[in-house]
Design a protein that fits this description.
With 152 residues, this protein is α+β, with helices and mostly antiparallel strands. Helix content is 24%, strand content 42%. It has 4 helices and 7 strands. Strand 2 and strand 3 form a beta hairpin. The longest helix has 12 residues.
Length: 152
């Protein structure tokens, strides 16, 4: 049994750099992989071309879901994080938070991120998670899915 779900999430996130992002439009689901960073409030940030299918769908429907998991092999006991929330393009007044979060996570220079931000084809997006789920077979016997309301 996991005692502190939030701490499990905070310990797990640094191990993974990609998340699977689920979007939908007109009842048609879509999933893609994006490189992500996160802040102290567990908001998830990614950078993507505005012309991609997932960004076009976010522009029409900001409700998203996704997973953050490592690949498991053989007899390894799985653990994974799933989430649902709202996603939106980061506006010019708050883009510095996204840049700061990426610099901290990926140890890239501020100049490099500022230059990337000026690329008109790419924008930063933020996912404000409303609910986390942790599936755990490592410490939970039998395996169990835990739910954590979020939105701090």
């Amino acid at each position: 049994m996991l005692e502190n779900i939030e701490q499990v999430i905070r310990d797990y996130l640094p191990q993974i750099i990609h998340l699977s992002l689920g979007t939908s439009k007109e009842n048609k689901p879509w999933v893609c992989e994006v490189t992500f960073a996160y802040d102290d409030n567990l908001n998830l940030y990614f950078r993507s071309r505005t012309t991609t299918r997932h960004c076009q769908e976010i522009a029409e429907n900001k409700l998203v879901s996704g997973s953050i998991v490592t690949q498991h092999v053989g007899e390894e006991k799985p653990r994974g994080i799933y989430f649902e929330g709202e996603c939106e393009m980061v506006n010019d007044s708050t883009v510095s938070k996204a840049i700061e979060t990426y610099i901290k996570r990926f140890s890239v220079g501020n100049e490099s991120m500022e230059a990337k931000n000026r690329d008109p084809g790419h924008r930063f997006y933020v996912i404000k998670v409303s609910k986390f789920f942790v599936f755990d077979a490592r410490e939970s016997q039998p395996p169990h899915k835990y739910e954590l309301e979020w939105g701090k």
